Predict the 3D structure of the following.
Amino acid sequence: DTGVSQNPRHKITKRGQNVTFRCDPISEHNRLYWYRQTLGQGPEFLTYFQNEAQLEKSRLLSDRFSAERPKGSFSTLEIQRTEQGDSAMYLCASSLGGQRKTQYFGPGTRLLVL
Amino acid sequence: QQQVKQSPQSLIVQKGGISIINCAYENTAFDYFPWYQQFPGKGPALLIAIRPDVSEKKEGRFTISFNKSAKQFSLHIMDSQPGDSATYFCAASIGGSARQLTFGSGTQLTVLP
């Protein structure tokens, strides 16, 4: 089964370090989304791509965060100069285009900033 | 502000009972209301979704009731099973399922055997 995959599944880093996460969407899904989920809360939207174009960005996506989807397939989310407040689960989702297409979520990358 | 309020925060139900989770929203532009189920260590998975042109949608043991005038919607799980124990999130979006989802804060459901 080729669901959404995310790597790494867990990341521990020290404050001030840079981290990069990867998301591989379901093949043929042209839309890809990033969400952040903190403990006891629902996911919060960060950004989404249609093919390689980044179409929406949340105010949560500060200038320390950057996301790319260079060839319209996999995506990376980089956090520069990590802060303890960045500790969260980072979820990726993908979908086909169109208003009635489900977003399928990956298992997430859990980030802990010490 | 785009916000979805969900209650209760936690719910304990006996096996075979009915689980009811409620959500309320403010933004009348929302036009797609899904419910997601999340197990520990997994990403959320779509359970059932509804659009505001219908008042109820049923899929197996899961039913969404939608009240457009009250800006509320709820998830009913009939004949709840221990395997239903998970965290449930309501969500809403503008422009259908392909746009950003705004999630509620979640309900942790425990179904006792």
Observations:
- Chain B has a mean pLDDT of 93.
